[in-house]
Amino acid sequence: MNTQTCCKTRRTARESGFTLIELLIVMSIILILATLAIPAMQKSIIKANETSAISSVRMLNSMEAEYNSAYPQHGFACSLPTLGGKAGSGPPTAESAQLINEDLASGSKSGYTFTITCGAKTTINNVDQVNGYTINAVPNSVGHSGNRGFCADENAQPHFDPKGGTNCTELLQ
Predict the structure, then answer these.
(1) What is the model's pTM?
(2) Are 133 and 117 within 8 A, CB to CB?
(3) Phi, psi (5° rounding) for residue 73?
(4) What residues contact 115, with CB distance under 8 A and at least 6 apart?
(5) What is the pLDDT of residues 1-15, one digit of tens each?
(6) CB half-sphere exposure, 162, CA atoms < 13 A
(7) 134 and which of 28, 83, 117, 172 could share a cystine (Cβ 3.0–4.6 Å)?
């Protein structure tokens, strides 16, 4: 009896671990799941970045209209820092309107680079009045941070470029 108990103990000790084949199978399954999950996660990140960029372009259009009504002698703002500025650094001015957050005023947000380009200018009483603008949002890395580029102008109708550039020909719905 004593010999049988000893042998059963050895046998259960051998059976308690995983074999190399079992570990390889588990690791293979994990790798397969990861290869399926990573592209789906990348698509979600791209979709979130594009949604943020669209929202930012629409907000910049609204802030341009607000800037134009607050500083009609200047017309529209020609740069993101002009629409931005540090809150608490004094009252808003035409050069620092404090209408947008610092992250967007820096020109980079959620995998996109934002720019504002001036349109036509008219000089009235030695002050340039900007009559138009173009807002551009392009992905920092096409295919990784975003797929489409977004544009808008003083008409406030956002368009997009399916190739990720600034040739925005398609109307955003």
Answers:
(1) 0.78
(2) yes
(3) -70, -20
(4) 80, 107, 135, 136
(5) 555 555 555 555 556
(6) 3
(7) 117
User: Which domains, ranges and CATH numbers included, belong to the chain?
Assistant: 20-80+107-171 (3.30.700)
Distances, alpha carbon 30 to alpha carbons 19, 20, 41, in Å: 17, 15, 16
For 15-26, the pLDDT digits (tens) are 678 899 999 999
Residue 125 backbone class (left: φ over 0; alpha: ψ -120 to 50; beta: rest): left
Give 59-63's long-range contacts (Cβ < 8 A, gap of 24+): 59/100, 59/104, 60/100, 60/104, 60/114, 60/116, 60/135, 60/152, 61/135, 61/152, 61/156, 61/158, 63/97, 63/99, 63/100
CA 154 to chain centre: 22
First vs last Cα of the chain: how many Å apart? 82
Q: Nearest-5° angle of CA 159, CA 161, CA 164?
A: 135
Region of residue 17 (left: phi > 0; alpha: psi -120 to 50; beta: else): beta
